[in-house]
């Protein structure tokens, strides 16, 4: 594994842990809003890459 790959794995793990810690401290109202807001964005992104289930 290259140095860049190793660093990427460490950095990604730190980002995931930080996100998990942040989400545990959020109120349920904010989490509901976040899920509702990002759900449409992820579908649009998948459609843009031709990865949605309707395009398979």
H/E element sequence: HH
What is the mean predicted local confidence, pLDDT?
Answer: 71
How is the biggest beta sheet arranged? Answer: none
Strand content: under 5%
Calculate the terminal CA-CA distance, rounded to whole Å: 34 Å
Which key features would you list for this structure?
elongated; 56 residues; mainly alpha
Structure report:
With 56 residues, the chain is an all-alpha fold. It has one domain. 79% of the residues lie in helices and 0% in strands. The protein is built from 2 helices and no strands. It is elongated and about 40 Å long. The chain starts with a helix and ends in an 8-residue tail after the last helix.
Mind sketching the topology for me?
Blueprint: H1 3-25, H2 28-48
Summary, kept brief:
The chain is an all-alpha fold and 56 residues long.
